[in-house]
């Protein structure tokens, strides 16, 4: 599967219209990708085991999307096969009073992955340049006036780019997914949530309110992606109208990212090897 076409590294200007939300990469159904996904899960699990054992690199995976794009199920699938000990999923909701009393990266900094671990962010500090931009929430923030200039969002793009670059230089790899959904598919999924009793819990009237700002959000996503996509910390704009294809793309991207990290089991030194042989001997003597 060619996932390169979904990768954005900030070198060229992009338009979201150039990314087809309905794309299925030439596959016609989930059956076509089943085998590949199974193999990917096994490979990812092996690589995670090495990542954990090596304990050098942390992996930060960010999911951003409009409501009903399939973030939750994408995360659930991305997790399958992964050893729960080495991964943590964090959801970024509306900030609490305590969180608002800090700089906006504070709550994310606290939950960054340790070396050898994976952190999955369900939403992230990108909300601080998305919902905060769309609703101009910064106007009511308790900030010194010098921090509330017109260019507050542009400044945040720079801060985020620098933050991720800092993480990269310190051994934390960041990969960002934007699940790119059409407005029609969002409507279809909202209506399903209303009509299907088992899906009621997933529906909230806040979702309808936000849908009214669809165009503003698309614009905010585009600017944020353009400003923060880099070679080391790329964005992937993943087609999200077909959930099975979204998951297939994500699994392939994760596999390629982990392959590139190429974690290795720690090499056993001569002394360690001798110590192991010594322990074996003792165990055998003890019976
Ligand atoms: P789901 O609806 O599938 O449970 P969700 O991620 O949409 O998942 P919600 O509780 O519905 O979860 O929404 C979280 C809300 O918090 C979103 O509307 C998001 O924009 C908002 N939010 C997140 N971070 C911030 C922030 N820094 N400032 C303001 N609002 C934020
Ligand atoms: Mg929601």
Low-pLDDT segments, ≥5 res: none
Annotated CATH homologous superfamily:
P-loop containing nucleotide triphosphate hydrolases
In the CATH hierarchy, what is the architecture at level 2? 3-Layer(aba) Sandwich
Mean pLDDT: 96
Protein topology:
Blueprint: E1 7-8, H1 30-54, E2 58-65, H2 71-79, E3 87-91, H3 97-100, H4 106-109, E4 118-122, H5 131-134, H6 152-169, E5 172-180, H7 183-195, H8 205-211, H9 214-228, E6 235-239, H10 243-261, H11 270-286
Parallel strand pairs: 2-4, 2-5, 3-4, 5-6
Antiparallel strand pairs: 1-6
Helix pairs in contact: 1-10, 2-10
Bound molecules: adenosine-5'-triphosphate and magnesium ion.
Describe the protein's architecture and organization.
The protein has a six-stranded mixed β-sheet with strand order 1-6-5-2-4-3, with helices on both faces. It has a single domain (4-286), classed as Rossmann fold (3-Layer(aba) Sandwich). The protein has helices spanning 30-54, 71-79, 97-100, 106-109, 131-134, 152-169, 183-195, 205-211, 214-228, 243-261, 270-286; strands spanning 7-8, 58-65, 87-91, 118-122, 172-180, 235-239. It contains eleven helices and six strands. The longest helix has 25 residues, at 30-54. With 287 residues, the protein is of the alpha/beta class. Bound molecules: adenosine-5'-triphosphate and magnesium ion. Residues 67, 204, 207 line the site of magnesium ion.
């Amino acid at each position: 599967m060619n996932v390169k076409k979904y990768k954005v590294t900030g070198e060229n200007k992009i338009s979201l219209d150039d990314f087809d939300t309905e794309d299925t990469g030439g596959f016609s159904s989930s059956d076509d990708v089943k085998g590949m996904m199974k193999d990917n899960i096994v490979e990812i699990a092996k690589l995670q085991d090495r990542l954990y054992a090596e304990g050098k690199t942390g992996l930060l995976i960010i999911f951003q999307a409009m409501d009903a794009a399939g973030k939750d199920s994408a995360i659930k699938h991305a997790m399958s096969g992964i050893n729960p000990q080495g991964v943590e999923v964090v959801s970024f909701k509306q900030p609490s009073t305590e969180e608002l009393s800090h700089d906006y990266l504070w709550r994310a900094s606290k939950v960054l992955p340790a070396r050898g671990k994976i952190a999955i962010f369900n939403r992230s500090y990108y909300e601080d340049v998305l919902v905060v931009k769309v609703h101009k929430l910064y106007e009511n923030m308790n900030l010194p006036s010098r921090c509330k200039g017109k260019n507050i969002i542009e400044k945040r793009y720079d801060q985020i780019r620098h933050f991720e670059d800092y993480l990269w230089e310190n051994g934390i790899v960041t990969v960002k997914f934007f699940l790119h959904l059409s407005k029609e598919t969002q409507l279809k999924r909202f209506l399903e949530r209303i009509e299907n009793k088992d899906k009621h819990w997933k529906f909230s009237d806040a979702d309808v309110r936000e849908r009214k700002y669809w165009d503003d959000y698309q614009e905010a996503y585009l600017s944020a992606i353009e400003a923060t996509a880099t070679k080391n910390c790329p964005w992937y704009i993943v087609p999200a109208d077909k959930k099975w294809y979204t998951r297939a793309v994500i699994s392939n991207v994760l596999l390629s990212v982990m392959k590139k990290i190429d974690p290795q089991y720690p090499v056993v030194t001569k002394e360690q090897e001798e110590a192991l042989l010594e322990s074996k001997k003792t165990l055998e003597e003890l019976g």
